[in-house]
């Protein structure tokens, strides 16, 4: 059997079979960002088309091939899918062949949103497939939201909890996050959290949850070109050095690409109890790891 990440090529020369095996390594130039606020004038993200285009150029230079624009769908920001598509099309026309731009949203579990998603879930999902970014308020997470997540799953959707490491309520009650993950939800950590850009508590929790198998995606959650940039390469390199290249590929390329295309995630770690696992201990997975080359 070949080691993980190896591909075998067969060729025939003078009646003999020559087997050539070599490792195909993912470079940090195939990354997919599933969470960004690149579309201008829709929320607290890009303030102008010029900034949006600068963010797109930043992503390309960083090795990102696909970006999903996910403006807020919340009481503070009205979500209009037609306007979202219009802004996306305008940016995509400027970067055709250089960057693939899709749409989704940063879905708040409000009563109105939960009613609307019943009528047409693709208005809100990532690339109009079956994965949904879900953001919790940082002032209240009532028990009723557990049932709301379950209802989304019954509708065939895969909720992705966005940046839980930055939410003080979830940090204080990590067992709630772990219950959602065991229920079948996924978790996305912000790349900058790994470097303490959102405070030491968020940084510490992100590292702990990585070790516990509670992280399935790392995304930029970019809002601009300065304080919240559309970059992932630094996170890829950090994960490769501190965890493994396999983990870096999974969280920044394989799983995001699967969500982009609406496929099952190829990398789903077995979730451990929070804090029970040492960094170098072996990990099991709930399903076979499948790496897709693109």
Structure write-up:
There is one protein chain. The protein has helices spanning 49-62, 81-94, 111-119, 144-154, 168-172, 174-183, 200-211, 233-242, 245-261; strands at 6-13, 16-23, 31-36, 64-69, 72-73, 100-103, 106-108, 131-135, 158-162, 186-190, 217-219. Mean pLDDT is 87; it is low at 1-26 and 275-294. The strands form three sheets. It has a six-stranded parallel β-sheet. Strands 3-4-6 form a three-stranded parallel β-sheet. Helix 8 (233-242) packs across helix 9 (245-261). 35% of the residues lie in helices and 19% in strands.
User: Main beta sheet: strand number and arrangement?
Assistant: 6 strands, parallel
N-to-C span = 23 Å
Number of strands: 11
Q: Could you say which structural class the secondary elements and strand pairing correspond to?
A: alpha/beta
Helix share of residues? 25-40%
> What general form does the structure show?
globular
Spatial arrangement of strands, main beta sheet: 5-7-8-9-10-11
From the structure provided, what is the oligomeric state, counting identical versus distinct chains? Answer: single chain
What do the pLDDT scores average to?
Answer: 87
